[in-house]
């Protein structure tokens, strides 16, 4: 089945840009969604369809997807962005939904 | 406001059974596909099961296929997960999750979760 690979941790200082990659075989041909999970809370959808934002999600959150890597970009990082971030796709060949292992974003 | 509230979690012995429920409100429940997603302590997210609006399609992760059964009652705005032959590795927070109505494969609302602990 399709697999997604995420780097376990990313660190950034406030005000900088965080880039969180998600790798997969030819992932650029698939549609990627991203979730933010703050400690002790349920996940929240922050980007869908590679680069769209749900209502209420700041414009600082953006996404891209090409080749073998999808990327969630968080501009002007704030302390409140510290969380785990998960990428996800739907594998239509197996009718399974697949999550990456997650990336912990630390705001220094 | 959209609300999803899970219930039914608890402590169960290996080999035992448990039935989770999720009651939805704040949206036209019968129009939405629904899912269960779980998260083991300190681990990542794992999709568990999906059910279509009319119950015509149900899908399961390989790790639970044959042991878990998803169902829904549109008259009660609820979905359920019957979990049988539980294993220690089924220990997790179980989230009730709504599928996005247009973004294929995306999950747009999550419940707060219910904890299932499988231990002797």
What features would you highlight for this structure?
heterodimer; A: 108 residues; 4-stranded antiparallel beta sheet; B: 120 residues; mainly beta; 7-stranded mixed beta sheet; 11 strands; 0% helix
User: Poorly predicted ranges of chain B (pLDDT <50, ≥5 residues)?
Assistant: none
Biggest sheet architecture of chain B: 7 strands, mixed
Taking all Cα atoms into account, the compactness measure Rg of chain B is 14 Å
Strand share of the residues of chain A? over 45%
Give me the number of helical elements of chain A. 0
Helix content of chain A: under 10%
Distance linking N and C termini of chain A: 36 Å
Q: What proportion of the residues of chain B form beta strands (DSSP E)?
A: over 45%
Global morphology of chain A? globular
How big is the Rg of chain A? 13 Å
* Mean pLDDT reading of chain B: 97
The amount of helix of chain B comes to under 10%
Largest interface (CB < 8 Å): A-B, 26 and 22 residues
Q: In sequence order, what are the helices and strands of chain B, one letter per element?
A: EEEEEEEEEEE
Low-confidence segments of chain A:
none
Q: Which structural class should the secondary elements of chain A be placed in? A: mainly beta
**Major β-sheet annotation of chain A:** 6 strands, mixed
């Amino acid at each position: 089945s399709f697999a997604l690979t995420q780097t376990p941790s990313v660190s950034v200082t406030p005000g900088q840009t965080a880039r969180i990659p998600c790798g997969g075989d030819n992932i650029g041909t698939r549609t990627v969604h991203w979730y933010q999970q703050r400690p002790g809370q349920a996940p929240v959808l922050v980007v869908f369809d590679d680069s769209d934002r749900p209502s209420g999600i700041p414009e600082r959150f953006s996404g891209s997807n090409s080749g073998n890597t999808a990327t969630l970009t968080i501009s002007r990082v704030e302390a409140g962005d510290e969380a785990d971030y998960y990428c996800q796709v739907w594998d239509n060949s197996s009718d399974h939904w697949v999550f990456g292992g997650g990336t912990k974003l630390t705001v220094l | 406001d959209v609300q999803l509230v899970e219930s039914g979690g608890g402590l169960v012995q290996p080999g035992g059974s448990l039935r989770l429920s999720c009651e939805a409100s704040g949206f036209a429940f019968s129009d939405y596909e629904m899912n269960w997603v779980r998260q083991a302590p300190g681990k990542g997210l794992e999709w568990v099961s999906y059910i279509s609006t009319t119950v015509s399609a149900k899908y399961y992760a390989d790790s639970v296929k044959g042991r878990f059964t998803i169902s829904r009652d549109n008259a009660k705005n609820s979905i359920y997960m019957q979990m049988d032959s539980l294993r220690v590795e089924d220990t997790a927070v179980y989230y009730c999750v709504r599928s996005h109505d247009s973004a294929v494969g995306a999950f747009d609302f999550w419940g707060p979760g219910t904890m299932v602990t499988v231990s002797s």
